[in-house]
Amino acid sequence: MQKFMTAIAFFLVASIATAGTVSGVTDQSLFGGTDQVTWADGGSYASSFSIASDGGINFTGGLSSGSANGHTAAWFGSPLDAAGSNVLFDNNAGILTLNSGLGQFYGIGLGIQDDGNSFTAKITALNGSGAALGTYSVSSDANGDAVWLGIMSTDPEIAGFSIQLTSVGQSWAVSSVDLIGQTTDVAPTAEATPLVLVGTGLGLLGWVKRRRIARNAAEGPCA
């Protein structure tokens, strides 16, 4: 009986501890993206927009201030000037947000550059509800050269991100968005929540106790 109850307690603890470990990364070569969100040259992106990744995953996007436009990346430095890529350029220094609504990525990353000044950029990983899973910040050199920053999790729990320059009044340009994870816009099989698992475990313990009492009553007192 004691072993059985210990096994149930272990099950409950293991089921609740499901959140991944979130960390930042600045080396794009180590990121190993499996999909991308690319910006259309000449495209216009308003405070609310929809966009799909190259692999067909649908995102809802937003800008906290004004709008942004897609441009060729030839006049930007690395890592924004990758061959054939475009950048998203914002004159109003808003916060860029993309969210697929599904926790399905191990990582999201992109390059960012100020309009000529040194800067600090911050990326925040978001779950499907838009809640923050973790943040990571990177500062440029004194020349304001572009930096690449990503955020990763040990579980495929990331649904999207927000990115911004932490200094007020700075405009930015961002590269295409690298993604690590699923490549289809299909909701994963629903998992039981921690509260449901706790309730199930407690109910099972109660059933075992009632069964033991009933068995003892049926057997009567020992001679």
Outline the structure in words.
It contains three helices and 15 strands. It is α+β, with helices and mostly antiparallel strands. It has two domains: 18-181, Jelly Rolls; 192-223. Strand 10 (120-126) and strand 11 (132-139) form a beta hairpin. Helix 1 runs antiparallel to helix 3 (194-219). The chain is elongated, with a radius of gyration of 24 Å.
Topology:
Elements (H helix, E strand, L loop, with lengths): L1 H15 L5 E4 L2 H4 L3 E3 L6 E2 L2 E5 L5 E6 L4 E5 L13 E5 L5 E4 L5 E10 L5 E7 L5 E8 L7 E7 L6 E6 L6 E3 L2 E5 L12 H26 L4
Antiparallel strand pairs: 1-12, 2-15, 3-6, 4-5, 5-8, 6-7, 7-14, 8-13, 9-12, 9-14, 9-15, 10-11, 10-13
Spatial extent as radius of gyration: 24 Å
The CATH architecture term of the largest domain is: Sandwich
End-to-end distance, in Å?
Answer: 23 Å
Provide the low-confidence segments as ranges. Answer: 3-17, 183-202
Supply database-style keywords:
36% strand, 6-stranded antiparallel sheet, 2 domains, alpha+beta, 223 residues, 9-stranded antiparallel sheet
Concise structural overview:
The protein is built from three helices and 15 strands. It has 223 residues and is of the alpha+beta class.
